[in-house]
Amino acid sequence: MFSGVTYPAQVPCTPLVSYADGPDYVRGPAGVTVFPSQISLASTFDSGLAYDKGAAQADEAFRSGKNGLLAPGLHSGRTPLSGRTPDYLGEDSYLAGTMAGAAVDGIQTGNPTEPVMAVVKHYIANEQELDRQTSSSNVDGRTLREVYDLPFRIAIAKGDPAGVMCSYNQINGVYGCENPLLKNVLKKDDGFRGYVVSDFGAVHSTAPSLNAGLDQELNRPRFYTPANIGAAIDTGQVTEAQVTAAAHRVVRSYIASGLFDHPLPTTPSTSSSTPANKAVARQVAEQGSVLLKNSANALPLTKSNRTIAVIGATASATATNGISAASVCAMPNFGPPVSCPNVVAPLDAIRERAAAVGATVTFDPGTDKAKAAAVAAAADTVVVFGYALQGEGADRTTLALDGDGDALISAVAAANPDTVVVLETGSATTMPWLADVRSVVEAWYPGEQQGNALARLLYGDVDFSGKLPMTFPKSLADIPTSTPSQYPGLVNGEVTRPAGSTVIRQVAYSEGLAVGHKWYESKGIEPLFAFGHGLSYTSFSWSDLRVDRRGSGADTRLTVRFSVRNTGSTAGTATPQVYLTLPTAAAEPGKRLVAFSDVTLRPGERRTVKATVDAGSPDEPLSIWDTTTHDWSVALGTYGISVGDAVDATPLSTTVSVR
User: Fold this and answer.
1) Of 29, 176, 446, 460, which has the most beta carbons under 10 Å away?
2) What is the rounded distance in angstroms from the CA atom of residue 636 to the CA atom of residue 609?
3) What count of Cα atoms within 13 Å lies in the side-chain half-sphere of residue 626?
């Protein structure tokens, strides 16, 4: 419901349907668990955990009086400046779609007596916040299918969401919520059986949007009022049968989801968080934190680290100049940080863990660099926190840290070389101080359990297993969208929008298929940290790659087998990633991720891993989109197959011919 709007009377014997925004957590109700951001979930490369997190969210949503979650979110990461990068699942179509599908499954099937619908968003090519309602994403047909539609196609096949939300932006000059892509691609080609709902205020018409495939206007009906729909029928712009079909798709989804069988509680809970759900939040924060660098075995901390200086405002529950651990709990929306009343601050958790081994912890918020350097110099080890805030409503203009954080880290590292950096950001950062510090941890926006998770990771109570779901560039000049026409796009040929102008900003997706890691590999640009990168406290070896091919053409099925061995002294989790390089004639840049898994091994343990790559699966691993036949087409020829734990670290490789 939306205040100030008069709604028609509810049809008798139908359920109340109440949505909540919720890619990361159930936004709005009090007393819910604040889970880590979606980019953190993507970093786990663990679809089982995505299911568990979806189920936990749905449990809290239902008991809080919400039976529709506007989640998960998908985009393709064409620019790391995008404000909602932390709201999404990274730059790779296969990873994002697979994780989204698992999250949808968890939301919709994890609690049979507490039914909640998942609404995947935002369809399609919704890649920036700047002028998101007055911009056109201008993209060629092959790129649209292979890069921007494919994550939705995979999520639909794996999760069967009740709804898909159309986006604010135009696609090739037509608004997302009245674009024929809804009917011709999403519903027809991708096999979406649910209903299409608009983003809030994203509808611009009655008949054109209904004809294009929109089924429901979210929250504030302006174009889908009884009067407007009746007028469209009377003037012949739409038929009564079309209106009935749209209503049928909505109601069918409500019935299939169980909303008629299990009504919402009469009195919604204001304290739906549970210890079990908090444990899931901590697990996501642990598995989603990525160890980017760890020289001289600076981590894990041990009892030899007798004095530890913790520096940086986001480490503490007490705010300094308005910044605290709560500020980076989750993605801020339109500026202000989210309410995170139950945050476990890293400083408190590190102090408690350090005391268990007889160590002492000092703290400085880092507002005075000279003072922070003096505190650092007096300690054996320094853990310094850097942060960058971003979210809905605005894009970033830099990949530097907020609060002069890069200068703070440089000052601290100059005072004490045994410096560990913990980054709490929503996207990539450029790290000009990287060579001067021992260790770097990317914790993203780690939710309310951030302190518990980080203390356990820093002390090695759990191993680092997170992997980057997006590339970290060395500079903004290296990113795929480095020209003004690509980002932020042009208004009448200019970057800056004139005051009061409503002219549509034209955003050229001229990088085509070369998005994310495919851009850096195909252009020979070395990133700061590659897609899939993430270190562990142990080491792994890879061997015995074998590929079995069955069938031909569209019936091709590849079975990839290889061995992983823990060659270190502690238990750890490897994240095998299987990549394909398509035949030259396919003109496909870089490698495709086609499989990933988690393998937890004891020291010395070895295990054989099997991955199946099926030409007929929804991720179309062997196909390209043929703009002549308007269909997926298996690329024939010699494929490269590579296996490892990052796109730039694949020690195993071979080739296979597809006929």
Assistant:
1) 446
2) 26
3) 11
Identified catalytic residue from 199, 215, 348, 395: 199
CA distances from 141 to 138, 174, 191, 607 (A): 10, 14, 18, 42
| Contact present, 84 and 73 (Cβ < 8 Å) | yes
Contact 82, 75 (CB under 8 A): yes
Element (H, E) at 481: none
Long-range contacts from 505-509, C-beta under 8 angstroms, 24+ separation: 505/130, 505/131, 505/134, 505/135, 505/136, 506/135, 506/136, 506/138, 507/127, 507/128, 507/135, 507/136, 507/137, 507/138, 508/138, 509/78, 509/125, 509/137, 509/138, 509/139, 509/140, 509/143
Q: How many residues does the chain have?
A: 659
271: CB partners within 8 A, 6+ apart: 30, 31
Across the strands, what pairs with 387? 424
Q: pLDDT tens-digit profile of 313-327?
A: 999 999 999 999 999
439-456, pLDDT tens digit by residue? 999 999 999 999 999 999
Per the confidence metrics, is the pTM higher than 0.90? yes
Of 117, 110, 159, the closest CA to residue 16 belongs to: 117
Q: Are 362 and 480 in contact (CB under 8 A)?
A: no
Active site residue 199: yes
